[in-house]
Amino acid sequence: MSTLKQGDKAPAINAKDQLGNIISLNDYAGKKVVLYFYPKDDTPGCTAEACNLRDNYDSLLNAGFDVIGVSSDNEKSHQKFITKYSLPFRLISDTDQKVSNDYGVWGLKKFMGKEYMGINRTTFLIDENGNIEKVIEKVDTKNHISQIL
């Protein structure tokens, strides 16, 4: 679970997106950002969450938000995921888990009796000044937009 909370300065980001372009949080100065961390491309929960954000993307833009997704999948996996579901936002390829660790979402997980390390699904709303406005740890993948707006 993340130790970051409302009012904290959002950790800097310097990572590659699905096309290999560098994403920096500084690029979004003056804009609000939905920074959502998810475990894996093209899995049921992650697909539901991405499609909920896609289907409500105009509402997010109208509310002043840009959207960035983060998982430890590689660029090629992100490209396929974006193409398959027509996602209109960028995805960070966090293969070294630097961004996930900086945001405190990389940690121990349990599934079907097995323990492993991975991303704990979490969304950060970041304001125009780069401060965390809200942390959503219990993400409702099918209705995530209602938690954000």
Give short descriptive properties of this protein.
about 150 residues; alpha/beta; Glutaredoxin; two-stranded antiparallel sheet; about 25% helix; globular
Tell me how many strands there are. Answer: 9
Largest sheet: 5 strands, mixed
Poorly predicted ranges: none
CATH architecture annotation name: 3-Layer(aba) Sandwich
Radius of gyration: 14 Å
CATH superfamily: Glutaredoxin
Order of helices and strands: EEEHHEHEHEEEEH
Separation of the first and last Cα atoms = 22 Å
Task: Give the helix tally.
Answer: 5
Q: Report the sheet-strand fraction.
A: 25-35%
> Helicity, in percent?
25-40%
CATH C-level name:
Alpha Beta
Please state the average pLDDT score: 96
The number of distinct structural domains comes to 1
Short description:
Helix content is 26%, strand content 30%. The chain is α/β, with parallel strands linked by helices. The longest helix has 12 residues, at 44-55.
